[in-house]
């Protein structure tokens, strides 16, 4: 069967919600992969008296979906119920937040705890460790702080004041500190992978890489320890947070994705739709991985602008007329395929294309008018997705 399908699965899982001054939307899509191994969590109002706190996360599984699925259901509880975190939450007087360092310690403890718990479950069930693993990127949002949590190469970023204010650092085996830990545990980094095999240096699960005797859990070839960054909230300038697996970041840079999200929020307040446009655009830009994205908007997020809506409608109309012209121009040579249409448009200077998304973000519009003009054309148009 191989690692990839003959054509991508584009059906999406969506969800949205609001509360605590936040709105969120999410989208996940299997894409070209044979199996969907991503999972996600979105919770507004946390247990243990933290009703003003919220938690969002994306888990990118590998070698199976078991670890990602378990984390999506249980990681938050492991964080909020462990003694370190509960001690932090209970310590301050009413109305005050616990100290940043206490919260960070509690989050770290939760990760180490769930990792050990999953190992024990796996050994009881299978008589040996489950081979699957998962990265995790998330945010714990309190009334005064945003805690970015990262373990692996999924990524989270914060847009503030119209630009990328913060983003998490990917945990790759070739990073100097990661490489040092791997080598100290008796491993090596070959072709930018742990022992030439695993492309991430921190993850939950992956117990085959966590059995070096004499080394603690954070000293293994693969570490379950997250990096936690505390950022003070700015009500005036905070716009949105994006959490996404590497299937998104493989084809879009931080600034590109931020610019694209901002442009979409100016034409719609439907966050599910924005997330769907992100995953579709990344598919058309050439991503071959599962894709999941969570978009969390603060009160200061860009608002729908009548001018932007008008520009978008004019762009769509222009693209529709250009597709019609390209098809008619072929004349007796017959109807050109969609790839030819996309390449023709890609060679032109088209004004007002969405920043970051460019022509790829308009593929669905182009495909719709192409299919309308050629209702009986049966050629599979998904075989060449990359129109960049």
UniProtKB/TrEMBL annotation:
InterPro entries: PP2C (IPR015655), PP2C_BS (IPR000222), PP2C_C (IPR012911), PP2C_C_sf (IPR036580), PPM-type-like_dom_sf (IPR036457), PPM-type_phosphatase-like_dom (IPR001932). Residues 23-298 form the PPM-type phosphatase domain. It is an enzyme of class 3 (hydrolase). The keyword S-adenosyl-L-methionine does not apply. It is a lipid-anchor. GO terms for cellular component: cytosol; membrane; nucleus. One of its GO terms (molecular function) is protein serine/threonine phosphatase activity. Its EC number is 3.1.3.16. Belongs to the PP2C family. PANTHER family: PROTEIN PHOSPHATASE. Enzyme with a broad specificity. Negatively regulates TGF-beta signaling through dephosphorylating SMAD2 and SMAD3, resulting in their dissociation from SMAD4, nuclear export of the SMADs and termination of the TGF-beta-mediated signaling. Dephosphorylates PRKAA1 and PRKAA2. Plays an important role in the termination of TNF-alpha-mediated NF-kappa-B activation through dephosphorylating and inactivating IKBKB/IKKB. This is Protein phosphatase 1A. The gene is ppm1aa.
